[in-house]
């Protein structure tokens, strides 16, 4: 199997859309990602997967902290901005939770200190110890087969 076929298969898994944010002491940085998961409630741990060639890798290593921001269905432009697909015309509004930049009005922002780094293949997994969360109401932005979508709850008979 070639890499394109593998990538197409992975695209069949519908995900929410996140933006990973961090601050290098001078500037706020963000990266759109869907490689995120919750791994433990006690202690509270999550993980993100960052390509070893991504600029964000060194920024997280240097700061030792990051936030995972779950985007709402009204924030596709923010995702596209941090994915390098389309510059957001009016810029991105950031908030701050315990010194870590977060996307304003995201459905949730999970703020972490890096607990472990694990290099696996061409990515690095950052396991984060959760320091705080911020939650708002709304519907999630989704991603499936390379396209953005929205969430619709199914009715059961």
TrEMBL record:
Q: What is this enzyme's class at the first EC digit?
A: oxidoreductase
Residue stretches making up the Flavin reductase like domain? 10-150
Q: Does the keyword Oxidoreductase apply?
A: yes
Transmembrane ranges, per UniProt, are none
Could you list this entry's UniProt keywords, alphabetically sorted: Oxidoreductase
- What Enzyme Commission number(s) apply to this enzyme? 1.-.-.-
Q: Does the keyword Transmembrane apply?
A: no
Family annotation (InterPro entries): Flavin_Rdtase-like_dom, NADH-dep_flavin_reductase, Split_barrel_FMN-bd
Write out the GO MF terms: oxidoreductase activity
A Pfam family that the UniProt record links to this protein: Flavin_Reduct
Gene3D superfamilies per the UniProt record, alphabetical: Electron Transport, Fmn-binding Protein, Chain A
Which PANTHER family has this protein been placed in? FLAVIN REDUCTASE, FMN REDUCTASE (NADH) RUTF
Q: What is this protein called?
A: Flavin reductase family protein
* Species the sequence originates in: Oceanobacillus aidingensis
């Amino acid at each position: 199997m070639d890499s394109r076929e593998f990538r197409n298969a992975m695209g069949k898994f519908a995900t929410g859309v996140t933006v990973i944010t961090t601050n290098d002491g001078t500037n706020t940085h963000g990266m759109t990602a869907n490689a995120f998961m919750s791994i433990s409630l006690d202690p509270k741990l999550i993980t993100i997967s960052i390509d070893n060639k991504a600029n964000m890798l060194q920024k997280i290593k240097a700061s030792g902290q990051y936030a995972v921001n779950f985007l709402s269905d009204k924030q596709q432009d923010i995702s596209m901005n941090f994915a390098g697909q389309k510059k957001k015309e009016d810029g991105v509004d950031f908030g701050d939770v315990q010194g870590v930049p977060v996307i304003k009005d995201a459905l949730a922002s999970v703020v972490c200190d890096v607990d472990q780094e694990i290099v696996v293949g061409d990515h690095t997994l950052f396991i984060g110890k959760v320091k705080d969360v911020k939650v708002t109401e709304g519907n999630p932005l989704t991603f499936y087969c390379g396209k953005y979508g929205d969430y619709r709850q199914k009715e059961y008979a």
